[in-house]
Amino acid sequence: MAGIGRFRRNRNTMPAKVAIIVGSKGRGSNMLALIEASQAGDLPAEIVTVIGPSADIPSLQVARENQAPTDVADPTDETYPERLLSVLKERQAEWICLAGYLRLLPAQILQRFPNRILNIHPALLPKFGGPGMYGLRVHEAVLSSGDAETGCTIHLVNERYDEGKIIFQLRCPVLDGDTSESLAARVLKLEHQAYPAALKQLIESHGR
Ligand code: GRF
After folding, report:
1. Quick check: is 129 in a domain?
2. Which residue, 116, 78, 80, 82, is CA-closest to 97?
3. What's the start-to-end Cα distance of the chain, in Å?
4. In a domain, 175, yes or no
5. Has residue 4 got a pLDDT over 70?
């Protein structure tokens, strides 16, 4: 059978439609890496929307400045699952990339997008993940472990934090004298390479 039912399209000419979901605290730098890669033609994708919890968060401002469509869906609202589904349907999203989104997704979204939701984590999973492992805490844990290398991980999203199938990793050394801040900065550079590369690999291997 060619194609996957509802996502079937002309794989040679049509970019995959990708929605990015961000949280209130992020800078939007991974989101921007995906937007720039798609606009530069390095990624066979169109960012059809960036979804955030309110219009005034930094990431959505950056998205607008970079000509990406945006939508608001507030995870604290009781109608959030329906609102998110409705936005994703309206924008015809085929893939979802989480970027600085610190929550679990509603079950309806996981069911509607099986194996099509990605997250980026700033360490080499399966180590240094799970509830509460975000921001500098991750890098502090890496430093405490004494590990000689760290990196970033792109993984599929399921109903548990940071536990979905690992699909892509990039590595870098932990250096003498590193602080959690210096490690975070080194890993962030890798993240900006890894997310577009991982998404490209997945889109191309799925034939959309
Ligand atoms: C990144 O470190 C990412 O790995 C994690 O949240 C952070 C978001 O940063 N999931 P940014 O908003 O993309 O700059």
Report:
1. yes
2. 116
3. 13
4. yes
5. no
CATH of the domain at 83: 3.40.50.170
More confident residue, 34 or 1: 34
The pTM (predicted TM-score) of the whole model is 0.94
Ligand 1 test: best mutation among 188, 189, 190, 192, most atoms within 8 Å of CB? 188
The residue whose C-alpha atom lies closest to atom 2 belonging to ligand 1 is: 122
Domain that holds residue 72: 16-206
The tally of domains found in the chain comes to 1
Residue 187 lies in a domain: yes
**Exposed/middle/buried for residue 52 (C-beta within 10 Å: 0-12, 13-18, 19+):** buried
- Kindly report, residue by residue over 130-179, the tens digit of the pLDDT: 999 999 999 999 999 999 999 999 999 999 999 999 999 999 999 999 99
Active-site residue flag, 121: yes
